[in-house]
Design brief:
By secondary structure, this protein is α+β, with helices and mostly antiparallel strands. Helix content is 25%, strand content 18%. The protein has two helices and four strands, in the order ββαβαβ. It has a four-stranded mixed beta sheet. Strand 3, helix 2 and strand 4 form a beta-alpha-beta unit. Helix 1 packs parallel to helix 2. It is globular and about 30 Å long.
Amino acid sequence: MGAHSRKCDWCGSGTPIVRDMEPLNSAYQYWCVECARALIIKGDPIETYRELEGEPIYGRLLDEHCALKRFYSFARA
């Protein structure tokens, strides 16, 4: 199943923009914009990720909403 046909693993309705490459729970790997933003604001951002839309949407969310800068890595194919 391609990422374009998936739904967000958390809310079940949004189109995923990012994939957690090292999830604590394998049932929650794909995140839509709203759920990814909520994770960042909550203080639990995805640390190793892959952007799914071709644009750095998740990277921009980190820049906008993450007060504590930790080391994040973009997973390369």
